[in-house]
Amino acid sequence: MQRRLSRRAAMTGAATAAAAVGLAGCLQNPDSSGGTTATAEKYTEGDVPGSGTVTVLGAFGGQEQEAFLASLEDFEKESGVTVQYTADTDFTNTIRQRVGSGDAPDVALFPQPGGLFDLARGGKVVPIDVYLDYDALDGTLIPGFLDSARLQGRVYGAPMRMACKSLIWYPKAAYEEGGYSAEPATMQELYGIADEIKADGITPWSDGWAADQATGWVGTDWIEELMLRVHGPDVYDDWIYHRMPFNDEKVVQVFDLLGDLLKGEGNVLGGTDTILNTPFSEAPLPLFEDPPKAMYVRQGNFVTGFFPEDVQKNLDSEVGVFAMPTWEGGFDGQPILGGGDLAALFTLNDDSVKLMRFLSSPEFGGPWAQAGGWLSPHTTFDASQYPDEITRQVAEIASGAQVFRYDGSDVMPGAVGGGSFWTGMVEWLKGSKDSQQVCDEIEAGWPK
């Protein structure tokens, strides 16, 4: 998953169906005549011939770049279009500078929507409904994905990679030996299982927030997960886009609920001091000691890269995973918190449109999936291309969700999402400030 460290089972029944219908209503094909846009006209192939080359700027390099380029080989052969990809670890600043100087790439791959929104507000990005079949794309994506890239009624980025955060991992053999359920329907049921684990003399949870200057981001994920479950996606959207104040009573309530879990006696290995001083990458390690010191770690799909090497070699036999459950009395459906790269178009011509149509299709990404570390945002992607069963299980969890929402701190202004929210979580966990104080201070510092 693309964190800002480089800048982070379907429910059934009539009520769930009604919720799904309501969400679908928010995802209608936008009116191409409205909104802030570089162009409002529907593009037709042949309007602007391409040069045969499409330039692409992204944040990822190394093995990810190799897998990305391998995923484009068949497209380049069949289309005759050459893709020139440039990786830039300072992507956020570089794309802003290049667009500002009139040197924008044809396509850019945004690891968070915030930077994309900034450029879209200035009319620099082509809305996807101009050149893509919006309804067809929406029909294959996890519900809510396009809504997460919406600004003023238009969508400016097409998802080409997904990160799934709402996952709870456990050591498979020890967990099954203990006879604990791996299918809790609600968070309250999960807390009951955690009590069983405590009764057996094992600490239920392991957690770690340390991340140098980014310490605290893991805590923001916890708050976002509970906001989605307790209050649902509509309230979540109002919160992250500041249509409601950060210190609204609903937000303060979620801080207190999280406190019941993380600060409760015996719930988390080592308590709050250990959480703050343990690197997030080391949080899973106690699960795989013999015997395990903890049974659960909540983290995104990227966390498998931090498991012990012998565990990584045998993920299917060593590791279990399930979706973070719903909240009893909260949103009636399974939400998924996550992230993903959004492909955005700056140059509108035949070649760039061909590339965008491919990047945003369920056919993109096979070699990347096989190499590991990549998830398609499409429910119709061929899951047999994933390298192991655990990845297929994660993809199934995401595909079965009623609604997807972006990591809220990646959408909030940087001063909050990558600043006061992070530091506020640390002060809150230390106990130097209570839930109300932290929320009040974050609200007071929200950029005007």
TrEMBL record:
Q: Which PANTHER family match?
A: ARABINOSE-BINDING PROTEIN-RELATED, OSMOPROTECTIVE COMPOUNDS-BINDING PROTEIN GGTB
Q: What is this protein called?
A: ABC transporter substrate-binding protein
| Keywords, comma-separated and alphabetical | Signal, Transport
Q: The organism sits in which domain of life?
A: Bacteria
Please give the InterPro entries that the UniProt record associates with this protein. Answer: Bact_solute-bd_prot1, SBP, TAT_signal
Q: Which residues form the signal peptide?
A: 1-19
Q: Does Membrane appear among the keywords?
A: no
